[in-house]
Amino acid sequence: xxxxxxPVRRVxxxxxxxxxxxxxxxxxxxRQLLTDGMDLGPGVTFLVGENGAGKSTLVEAIAIAFGMxxxxxxxxxxxxxxxxxxxxxxQIRLTRGVGAARWGFFLRAETMHGYYTxxxxxxxxxxxxxxxxxxxxxxxxxxxxxxxxxxxxxxxDEPESALSFSSSLALVGVLNELAVGGAQVxxxxxxxVVCSLPGAAILEVGDWGxxxxxxxxxxxVQNWRAYLEAPERYLRHVLD
Length: 240
Prior knowledge:
Strand order of the largest sheet: 4-6-7-8-3-9-10
Largest sheet: 7 strands, mixed
Structural class: alpha/beta
Radius of gyration: 18 Å
Number of helices: 7
CATH topology: Rossmann fold
Shape: globular
Order of helices and strands: EHEEHEEEHHEHEEEHH
CATH class: Alpha Beta
Number of domains: 1
Number of strands: 10
């Protein structure tokens, strides 16, 4: 039996929304999204770009518009510490796939501590470990093991921040399993390891807005290659 359609087919401006000169509309990637819309395919899509380019803003807005908590967790989870999210989620419209799963999970690095507390205070049928007793990376891997196991939409915001090289490779394996199982993944990342998954779509965000590219063509990958070949060329400018 073929899989149902993927959860989110397109993201575009909601009816009546026009581009303004206020943040986050001033971010080129956000402006392009609101002007032209953005189609999303099944499987894994990576958003890659420098700090401030808008990749996390886009992933956050899609997750919230889908029904997930701004601070992470699955659809239906509601944890709040301090509101910092942009208003973009209320300004976009998601075109959902026919018969697609409505379940989703939002993993964002900077709010995982609060999510662990939420799980402690709201225990479910799962037998979870005490996440607060695990290292940051161990906690991330346990969430991947226990929560990333169903069809649906998975939004990840810079998951590599807690992961070592080998754990990042393990994440690539998890993302591949999700895609094979019919899930859809949207992941903002700085990691050339994480975004190296074969067959994934890669969208590079920057001053130009949003553009489709390949792993080898990413500025991120080219910069890391150049640095690892001769770090002294870069460090002399920093250390001097």
